[in-house]
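Researcher: Structure prediction, please.
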Amino acid sequence: MKIYSLPTLFFLSLLLILPGICQGAISQEQREATYRQLEIFANILSILQENYVEEINTDETLEGAISGMLLALDPHSSYLTAKDFDELQEETRGSFSGIGIEITVRDGILTVISPIAGTPADKAGLQAKDLIVKINGEVTKNMPSMEAIKKLRGPKGSEVTISIYRDGWQDLKEITIVRDTIPLQSVGGFFLEPGFVYINITNFQGQTTKDLKNKLAELEKEEQIKGLILDLRNNPGGLLDQAISVTDTFLEEGLVVYTKGRLPEQNMTFQAHANNGKNLYPLVVLVNEGSASASEIVAGAIQDHKRGVIVGTQTFGKGSVQTILPMPDGAGLRLTTARYYTPNGRSIQATGIVPDVEVPRLPYTEENEEKRVLPDFVREADLKNHILQRNDATEREEGGVSAPPETDTSKEQEAIKQRLKEDNQLRTGLNILKSLNLYTEYKSSPVLPKGGQ
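Model: Predicted structure follows.
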């Protein structure tokens, strides 16, 4: 079985799924009741065709009926026209034009799961759990998510205006966003400090694991990695197989995730493989309310295996599996068929992942920074004629006091310092990572002889 999908999607052959659904899951009594309802539906359609005030488009009417039926089940099941199906496959390859958000329907209201980092939606300030009340003036109440996606997407450079409501606001806010090509690259990374790496994954695309391994190999050529921060904040998910293989990169063995549905073929388990001791340095994973689906699989597995520390805020809670069933006319059916569970058997659906260390994101402003009054500390170095520092090991080797190392004031280092200054969750993650690394060194270091000689 090959996996291709968007947040936790399986791409299955029609022949693999339909026999089980048609023969094993529906009784003769249920089938007869269904036929009676279909007869009512056919009669209503015939009445519409003959008596409605205007001539109806039968294809559009049937598509609307199918979409309404699926929307009544859950917010993630939907009917895909042939064009929708092509666009879905295009998105799994990581290339599409739009504003860069993952959305769902909650209580009939279009809700932002997460903006993708660096996209127009992210730059416009959209946040997880924002409610999209209107798109170009059209009310989105009870609008299927696939229809909303079509309205939000469009040619690069074109504009879309959305009306947003956020918890705590008194009124709606209209935001006009210029569409752009959503970037292919889903992995970025650099050294925050010597030995400590920062990796962010914006979503899980077809090349994500390959890109992650290439980035780690590139950084390891610069210097040894002593610890890693994996940033999954505002990552709305993506391909299930990529979430599994990213997790596998940091595990030596054990269960990564498993799924449970009504049919035997929907019950699957996914195991980690031995990495021959690679990538076993201390690990911190950053998450927030915009981390969903595939991101939650990674965070849940890392947490259950006690492989790293999860830092941030509670995740979105999207723990269902969608199966894509190709239809004969090129269309597709996106159907929720199972739930997925962490290695310890926790369902993520509607609850999400609770961090090991909860750290709310604090907004940073230069104005607040300027208002901070620091205490006037006096240290030994401030005293007149204080004795200069002498390093015993340096004196023995060089016969004198070594000069302090030169400070790297490059633009990249300044940008990293500014980022740490503005991002309290990242700062906390780095401090925890240093502590984990120090603890690891303490455990592995021999006891020094008396006198430190």
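Model: The two ends are 61 Å apart (CA to CA).
Researcher: Thanks, that helps.
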